[in-house]
Write a structure and sequence with these properties.
Layout lengths: L1 H11 L1 H40 L5 E4 L21 E2 L5 E10 L6 E2 L1 H7 L4 E19 L28 E12 L11 E6 L11 E5 H6 L7 E4 L2 E11 L10 E4 H8 L4 E2 L1 E6 L5 H11 L4 E4 H5 L5 H38 L1 H9 L4 H37 L2 E16 L7 E15 L6 H27 L3 H8 L1
Parallel strand pairs: 6-11, 8-10
Antiparallel strand pairs: 1-13, 1-14, 2-3, 3-5, 4-12, 5-6, 5-13, 7-10, 8-11, 9-10, 15-16
Helix pairs in contact: 1-10, 2-8, 2-10, 2-11, 8-11, 9-12, 10-11
């Protein structure tokens, strides 16, 4: 009898049912879309960081930031007889230098072992991030005076552009990462070998290199060839690509850590330590322990680094966090308020009905149950409709698969070149090493999101039914019938 009466009352007030259910459906659909997009942005941030962070890496430890004006700048020094001179008197200059990050200090290599021995640390590896700068240029023959001697004190214009009537200079740079043999944690855990092989323990002390696939293709380099790193010819033994198509690798060139330290002349140091905790629950305690052991170092978790991601990915995250979340909450509140108002209004219009029911023996509990049941069914209808609408919107987003840009700035700093012996002056130029990629934004939906959405809609119906039932319970049969008469 209860179900029959419930169905008849809902079908008799189709307009109210449709309005309440539609309001809840729109709110629930928006909640699903915003929640799915929020999960998609988090996944996109993770994919964007995988190349520079490493799959399975929980924490990174980097040296302290240097004070302005400190840090090593690449300097190219050429003696009086530097370079080679052609028959026409033109002097060709070429030199490569490896330098560390100008904006951040290094850590002693022993830091890796210290961190690895901390409680709840399952793995730790160090890496040395460098920038290889190669200067090439040509200087024309120095003009002579009438007596056949070279002129004195003539130099090129400021900025290094020639001298003695012309000349040309070029500075090319690429990122180099010195890595240890353990590839289970850190940037190398986020790459796959597309040609040749990966670096291993036997490569320690050897002049071998592994190249990023995109960089190798742009420079027409292949396995078996060589590449100049810090003035040393390195044998190319492998080509690697990012494990995901949505991100680039962490560096253009990978070389053994000890070789990188020697070529850069920095000693037994690393720039970053990559740490893997024994469990997700232990990440916080490990981060605290490392910070206490190395107070001057910068200890970052993946969530910390995610905040440094820029580009349209950061804009999407900010939009969803600030606008989408509050909009969905606001719309859900409005929908609940709408359901409450319509339910109370419906109870007021049904004064005679409830008065009659009470007169023939219906208890307040039964009247409240009737009103609450109608509201819960309306909420359930709105929840199901909202899930269908939300899944449809998410499906469209996944079908379109919008591409957003993501970049993580790694190092900036000026470089310099000096040329003694009348060979030049000083040349300064900015350098920027950044990892940039295009990430496909997807909106994953889990069964948990769907269940929560339906639960929210049913809860909204219960709230509306509670208010409406409270209003109906206050009616007395005599007053209700007298008001009708």
């Amino acid at each position: 009898m209860y179900a029959t009466y419930l169905r008849r009352e809902l079908s008799g007030r189709k307009k109210q049912t449709i309005i309440v259910a539609a309001g809840l459906a729109i709110a629930i659909a928006l909640v699903i879309v915003v929640t799915a997009l929020s999960s998609g942005v988090r996944d996109a941030q993770t994919r964007a960081l995988e190349s520079v962070y490493g799959v399975g890496t929980d924490l990174t430890v980097a040296g302290a930031e240097t004070e302005p004006g400190q840090g090593e700048r690449p300097r190219f020094e050429f003696g009086q007889d530097g370079g080679s001179t052609d028959d026409d008197g033109t002097t060709s200059l070429s030199q490569s230098r490896l330098t560390t990050d100008l904006m951040r200090g290094t850590l002693a290599a022993s830091t890796v072992d210290t961190i690895a021995n901390l409680e709840n640390v399952s793995a730790a590896s160090g890496a040395l991030a460098l920038t290889n700068s190669t200067f090439t240029g040509e200087l024309p023959e120095r003009p002579s005076t009438d007596d056949g001697t070279a002129t004195e004190g003539q130099t090129g214009p400021p900025g290094g552009g020639g001298g003695f009537g012309g000349g040309s200079f070029d500075l090319d740079s690429f990122s180099v990462l010195g890595v240890g043999a353990d590839a289970s944690v850190g940037p190398l855990s986020a790459v796959t070998v597309s040609e040749g092989r990966m670096l291993d323990g036997a490569d320690a002390g050897q002049n071998v290199a592994v190249l990023d696939a995109t960089y190798a293709a742009s420079k027409s380099l292949a396995v078996g060839g060589t590449i100049d790193v810090g003035g040393t010819q390195m044998q190319i033994v492998g080509i690697v690509a990012s494990a995901t198509n949505d991100a680039d690798t962490a560096a253009n060139v990978y070389i053994p850590l000890d070789v990188a330290q020697t070529l850069a002349g920095v000693g037994d140091v690393v720039s970053t330590v990559y740490v893997q905790a024994s469990s997700a629950d232990a990440i916080g305690s490990v981060q605290t322990a490392i910070s206490e052991a190395f107070p001057d170092a910068t200890v970052s978790s993946q969530s910390d680094l995610a905040s440094t991601v820029s580009g349209s990915l950061a804009s999407a995250a900010a939009l969803i966090t600030s606008l989408g979340t509050w909009l969905s909450v606001l719309l859900l509140v409005v929908a609940v308020a709408l359901a409450v108002l319509f339910t109370i209004s419906g109870v007021s219009r049904r004064t005679r009905e409830f008065g009659t029911l009470k007169a023939i023996g219906w208890s307040n509990r039964r009247v409240v149950g009737q009103v609450a049941g109608e509201s819960v069914v309306q909420g359930l209808i709105g929840g199901v409709a909202g899930v269908v609408l939300g899944l449809g919107a998410v499906g469209i987003i996944n079908l379109i698969s919008p591409t957003i840009s993501a970049s993580t700035e790694q190092a900036t700093g000026p470089g310099g070149m000096t040329g003694p012996g009348g060979m030049g002056g000083a040349v300064g130029m900015p350098q920027l090493a950044a990892a940039a990629s295009d990430v496909v934004l997807n909106a994953p939906v889990s069964i948990g999101i769907v269940l929560v959405a339906v639960a929210l809609s049913v809860a909204a119906g219960l709230v509306a039914g509670a208010f409406g039932g409270w209003r109906a319970a206050r009616l007395s049969p005599a007053e209700a019938l007298r008001a009708v008469a």
